[in-house]
Every structure is written in structure tokens, then in C-alpha cells.
Amino acid sequence: MNISDIRYEHFSEKDYNAVRELLGFDVEAGENILRVLAEEPKLFVTAFIEDKLVALAQVNEPGAQTYLTVFVAPQFRRQGIGSAMVKYAENELRAGGSQKVRTSFRTGHQSSLAFASKLGYDKYFSSAYMQRTGDAFPLEKLPVRLYRDEDYLASQSLYAAAFHEMRVRVGSFPDSVIAQPSEKERRAWKEDADDRFVYEINGEIVAYSHLSGNELSSVSVRSDFQGLGIGRKFVLYLCNEIHQRGSTTVHLWCVVGNYARSLYDSLGFKEKYIMEFMRKTLEKS
Questions:
Q1: In what order do the strands lie in the sheet with 249-255?
Q2: How far apart are CA 172 and CA 224, in angstroms?
Q3: Maximum CA pair distance of the chain?
Q4: Which sign does the torsion angle of CA 245, 60, 280, 111 carry?
């Protein structure tokens, strides 16, 4: 087999069954990839040798820091296909202006660790995927409302500061900075404003959250209002919102070392697995 024979294509719906079959070789990894594929198929690239699907990659849009993961069919591993696909994706991301690339895999996958390390990826951080299944919580009426476009600057400011402070506390993010507002992000938030919420006290936004399907994508409380129980009440409200939308299961990610883990444990969230994240700085071409 010659690596030069690999044909890369953007994912097409006609290949969906072949992709499902490919990912069926690893149910754990396949579960994650299929979930993202259903939501954002445009992020995926397929690799063929002749008419045989041999690998699949999730390649997020280029940015200062982006994400890449590759899945190769077991019978085609250790033949250079995975390395070739990573190189192809990295070249695309580098051309788009990406400076750093992350990848991830479940804890305990030593072969994935060795593969990523060989390609220049270093350990970054770990995050637990958690799930709660059950009834809605009894809850008093709270000063929570849907996000509006005019809330952007206040919401983005507290969100960016809260996550930066968490990353500093955890200690796995040495180059963490407070993300600055941007018109691109503002437009993105406006497009799915029905999945964003703010918590107000005396007319001030003190907490912000985003839902993605039945997942708590982010929950953040303004620094000077932390420790007052607002985060707990907000999470209860958001779980109930997901329940009202028709799901009895709520998912979330919690960075290992984040003190919010104790809150999620107390609310009945159970850890399903831990993902290890690794990162690489792309050299300029």
C-alpha cells in the first residue's frame, strides 16, 4: 500500500453507513465522534484507498487553537495512514492560521497516547464526562431569563473571566488568558440565543450559561458573586430546562481539578469516563 494513494474528501451523507461501520470497531470512541458528526458534519474528513473507507478525522475550523482527532480502521493501523491523515489535517489548519491543535482520547488508551506523543503532542489537561438521569428538581422561581444580544458584553466578560480563573486554579493551562469579545462570537451567540441564559440580581447579569442539546455546555458565575449558591441554583434551573425540553438525561464536561465537581456530584451527576487532552504547537510553514 502506498500512502500517496489515500484520497481525502469532505464527509458526505452517502458515506454515513460506512462511517458508522468504521466507528463500530470502537464503541467508546465512536460514541463521541458520532455525536459530533450528527451536529456538525462539515467538520469531518474521510480517507479512502480506492473505494474503501479507511479513516475519519474531525478537523475543527482553523483558529488560534483548534481541535483534531483521527480514527483509523483497525485493519489499516500501523501502516502510516493515521500519521498521513494527521499531517494532511495539520497542513490544512496551518494554512488557515491555526497555531495550536488539541486532540483527545479516553483515559487508559495507551496506544492513542503513544501515537499522539510520536506526532509531537504533549499532555494538556483531563476532563470528566458526566451524566445525570432522573426527574426535574423542585425549585423556587429564579431571576433567570433568555439571553439577548445586548447582554453580550456583560455575559462574555464574566464567562471569560470565570473560565480563566478556573484554568489557573487547575494548573494545567499555563498560557491561559481571558478571552476578549469579538463580533464573530457575538453573532454566533445571537444565532442560538434560545439556548443561552442569564441570571440577574438587581438588574445586573451575575451568571451566564449555554445549553447544547441536553448538555450543559457552560455555566459561569461572576467572580464577585461566587460562593453564594448562585451556581447551584442556576444548574438546577438549567437541568429543569433540559427536562422540559423532553430529555431526562443531562450531560456535562468538568475539567479534572475543577472545584465545581463537588457540586455536580451532589446533584447526582455520575462520571461516565475521563478524556485526556493533548496539544501541539504547529510550526510555521
A1: 6-10, 44-49, 52-59, 65-72, 100-106, 270-281, 122-133, 249-255, 215-221, 204-212, 196-201, 144-146
A2: 24
A3: 67
A4: positive
What pairing do the DSSP bridges indicate for beta strands 204-212 and 215-221?
A: antiparallel
Q: Is the pTM of this model over 0.90?
A: no
Alpha helices in the chain (DSSP H): 16-23, 27-39, 81-95, 110-118, 152-170, 183-191, 230-244, 261-266
User: What Cα–Cα distance (Å) separates residue 144 from each residue in 82, 228, 230, 250?
Assistant: 47, 16, 11, 19
DSSP tag of 182? -
Q: Name the H helices within 44-151.
A: 81-95, 110-118
DSSP letter (8 states) at residue 63: S
Residue 94 has which C-alpha cell?
Answer: 496551518
Torsion of CA 200, 224, 177, 185, to 10 degrees: 10
Residue 7 CA, distance from chain mean position:
28
- Cβ atoms within 10 Å of 142's Cβ, excluding its own: 14
Give the separation between CA 282 and CA 119, rounded to whole angstroms: 11
Question: Which of 150, 266, 154 has its CA nearest to residue 220?
Answer: 154
- What 3-state DSSP class applies to 122? strand
Each residue's pLDDT tens digit, 207-255: 999 999 999 999 999 999 999 999 999 999 999 999 999 999 999 999 9
In this structure, are residues 13 and 47 in contact, taking their beta carbons and an 8 Å threshold?
Answer: no
